[in-house]
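Regression test case RT-17, inverse folding.

Input:
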């Protein structure tokens, strides 16, 4: 998930101690430098109800799933993913 285009409105939890050197290496490796970056952790427990909002993106598949049966000249179904962008960020919140 690209954190530049996401809003995560879940309680923040500390799962591991902060490591500023590791965070700096991560930012440099991904070309983010030190510009407006922060690290936080949130936990979604199995079975928890959350709400996710974003843009549905259909991604064409190169090959059908192994168990799919297709007809002649029938393209494999596109996979679906929920994404966000600057104008419409991905939003993750607790279910109400």
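Golden output:
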């Amino acid at each position: 998930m690209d954190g530049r285009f996401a809003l995560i409105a879940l309680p923040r939890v500390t799962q591991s101690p902060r490591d500023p050197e590791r965070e700096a290496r991560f930012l440099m490796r991904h070309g983010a430098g030190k510009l407006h970056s922060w690290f936080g952790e949130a936990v979604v427990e199995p079975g928890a109800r959350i709400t996710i909002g974003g843009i549905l993106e259909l991604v064409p598949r190169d090959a059908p799933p192994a168990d799919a049966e297709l007809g002649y000249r029938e393209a494999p179904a596109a996979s679906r993913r929920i994404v966000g962008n600057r104008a419409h960020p991905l939003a993750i919140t607790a279910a109400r």
